[in-house]
Amino acid sequence: MKPTALLTNDDGINAAFLHALVAACAAEGFRVVVAAPSGERSWIGRAFSRHREVRLTDYPGLGDQAWAIDGTPSDCVNIALGHLLPVRPDVVLSGINIGFNATMPLCLSSGTLAGATEGTAWGLPAVACSLDLEQSLFEQVHRNSSVCPPALRPHLETACLHAARFAKGLVGQPVTGLHVHSLNYPAGVTADTAMERSTPALVRHGSLFRRSALGFTFAWNDGENLTTDQQTDLAVLERGLISHTVFDFGGTAPL
Fold first, then answer.
1. Which of 13, 81, 160, 227 has the least C-beta neighbours within 10 A?
2. d(CA 111, CA 43)
3. What whole-number distance in Å separates Cα of residue 107 and Cα of residue 52?
C-alpha cells in the first residue's frame, strides 16, 4: 500500500512551488493529500482562526485529494487530520516555501514551519521545506506565485524531489517527540548539492515597520547576524548547500 503524505503551505494552494512538491511526492510513490490555504498566509506563525468560521472547498486536479481552506496553515493541517482524512497520513510536508526559512526569528514567524509543527503535534513525522531565491527572482515569484520562471524550474524540481525522498525516509520511523525537520535549499540547488545539519542563526532585526500615512506598514530588513558559527542554517545556505535543521519542541532530539 502506498504511504500517504499530507501537504500544506503558506503561499496558497495555487502556488507553483506546492504543485511541484505534489508532483514529486507522487513520483516517489506517495498517495498525496493536500490541505492548503486558499490564499497566501505567510508570516502568520502557528496562528489558528479562533474567532471565525473556517470554510473549505474541493480543489480538483491536485494530488489524490485536495482542499482549499480559507484559514492558516495550522488550521489546514488540524482540520485535515481531525476531520477530512479517513486514516492518518504517514508524513506531513509543508512547502515548498517561496524564499528561505532560515534564522530563528524568521522561523518563529513562518507559516511553513507552523504547518509542519501542527503535524508533529499529532505525532507524525513532519518536514518543512523552503527554497532560497535571489531578491529580484523572489519578487517576481511572489507577485505571481502560480507561475515558476523557466530558469528556476530545474532547481525547484530538484529541491522537491530531494524533499519527497527525505520525507519517504521518515515513513515508518518512530516519532518520540515534537520534531520538525526544516530543509532550506539554495537557489542553485542541483542533484549533487550536499546537505548539512545546521542550527538556526540568531539575527536581530529591530523594527520591522516604517511610518505610513495612517500608522505603520511592514518593512523587511536583513537585520544583524549575531552568530559566527559556520553551521548555522544561514551559513550553510551561503555556502550553497542544503541546510537541515531539526527543531526540537519537546527537548528530546538526539545531539
1. 227
2. 6
3. 26
φ, ψ for residue 245, nearest 5 deg? -110, 135
Q: What is the DSSP letter of 199?
A: B
Residue with cell 511572489: 142
CATH of the domain at 83: 3.40.1210.10
What are the two backbone dihedrals, phi and then psi, of residue 170, each rounded to the nearest 5 degrees? -90, -15
174 in any annotated domain: yes
* Range of lowest pLDDT (118-122, 127-131, 133-137, 242-246): 133-137
Enter the pTM of the model.
0.94
Of 254, 85, 114, which is closest to residue 180 (Cα–Cα)?
Answer: 114
Domain count along the chain: 1
Assigned domain for 216 exists: no
DSSP 122-147: TT--EEEEEE---HHHHHHHHHTTT-
pLDDT digits (tens, 9 = 90+) for 17-62: 999 999 999 999 999 999 999 999 999 999 999 999 999 999 999 9
Max Cα-Cα span within the chain: 58
pLDDT at 255 over 60: no
Residue 38 domain boundaries: 4-202+230-248
CA separation, residue 132 to residues 12, 37, 63, 97, 123 (Å): 18, 21, 25, 9, 29
Asked if 88 and 56 touch (Cβ cutoff 8 Å), the reply is: no
C-alpha cell at 89: 497520513
| Position 182 in a domain | yes
